[in-house]
From TrEMBL:
PROSITE patterns: ABC_TRANSPORTER_1 (PS00211), ABC_TRANSPORTER_2 (PS50893). This is ABC transporter ATP-binding protein. It comes from Paracoccus siganidrum. InterPro entries: AAA+_ATPase, ABC_transporter-like_ATP-bd, ABC_transporter-like_CS, ABC_transporter_ATP-bind, P-loop_NTPase. The keyword Nucleotide-binding applies.
Length: 278
């Protein structure tokens, strides 16, 4: 069954007065970012979005999350048209976005607090999700006392504690070192396999995109469109050694093939824009 339906979604941004970019050789103050995205995501599916910088991945995530309105086109979660943020959608950003004045437990509890979950229940759920993410014993630590990886674990625990039907993740591991990133990818998969939330995950890293996903969606250079969808038919549960397998390498090549020209196009786009922009 379908969880998210995106139909002909377009987004154009209006720049400030005096600003411009070059589109099709001409300076303009209107930036087309998404040019008619169609995508359907199944219930419980893990979809990763890859594409060159500026291809509108984050904007698309914001549209799904109701944080940004599309210029035209529609997005539904289940059968409800997305017009504003919804409590059944969780969000995890690249920056940990924790409250520095709340400890780990209180940070997770916050998401439950705003949804009106009674005090004892929210404390119990917050503890449960911190434990799931290996943070038992760190409940009373403040964000400044936690490593980047631990902070991101708290942020993911917070998003999952509300039992979201959809979890949107915007490069959540990009700021982490390689080992922590590997570890968190595996932890996320382990937990996702238990709860089966629908996940849409934006990343620049091809290996990460393949390792996590049921399907990798490759976006074109701006204005973004779905260029190709690669079904990842690798067994689950997955472990990191899978990345050394010939099957994984085949997907790596397939995704890179789809992406390569778009990355080049995006680079040309920036070079041109930079020579015109104010
Ligand atoms: N509020 C805004 N006003 C004008 N342009 C914007 C605005 N928000 C985003 N953009 C432009 O939209 C384009 C797509 O941005 P977006 O952040 O979605 O790209 P992305 O694919 O996520 O890129 P990256 O991989 O670098 O994060 C960029 O060119 C960006 O400059």
């Amino acid at each position: 069954m379908d969880r998210i339906t995106i139909s002909d979604v377009r987004k154009t941004f209006q720049l400030h007065s005096g600003q411009s970019i070059v589109v099709e050789g001409k300076p303009t103050d209107r930036v087309p970012v998404l040019a008619g995205v169609d995508l359907t995501i199944r219930r419980g599916e893990f979809v990763t979005l890859v594409g060159p910088s500026g291809s509108g991945k984050s904007v698309l995530l914001d549209i799904i999350g109701g944080l940004t309105q599309a210029t035209s086109g529609r997005t539904w979660i289940d059968r409800t048209l997305v017009t504003q943020p919804d409590a059944k959608v969780g969000y995890v950003f690249q920056q940990y976005a924790l409250f520095p004045w709340r400890n780990a437990l209180e940070n997770v509890e916050y998401a439950l607090e705003v949804r009106g979950v009674p005090r004892l229940e929210r404390r119990e759920r917050a503890r449960h999700f911190l434990t799931l993410f290996g943070l038992k014993g760190f409940e009373d630590r403040y964000p400044s006392q936690l490593s980047g990886g631990m902070q991101q674990r708290v942020a993911i625990a917070r998003a999952l504690s509300t039992d979201p039907e959809v979890l949107l993740m915007d490069e959540p591991f990009a700021a982490l070192d390689a080992q922590t990133r590997d570890l968190l990818q595996s932890e996320l998969l382990r937990i996702w396999e238990q709860i089966n939330t629908t996940v849409v995950f934006v990343t620049h890293a091809i290996d990460e995109a393949i390792y996590l996903a049921d399907r990798v969606v490759v976006m074109t250079a701006r204005p973004g469109l779905v260029k190709e969808i690669v079904e990842i038919d690798l067994p689950r549960p997955r472990d990191l050694d899978l990345r050394n397998s010939p099957e994984f390498n085949h997907y790596r090549q397939q995704v890179w093939e789809a992406l390569r020209d778009e990355v080049t196009r995006a680079q040309q786009d920036w070079a041109l824009s930079a020579s015109y922009a104010n």
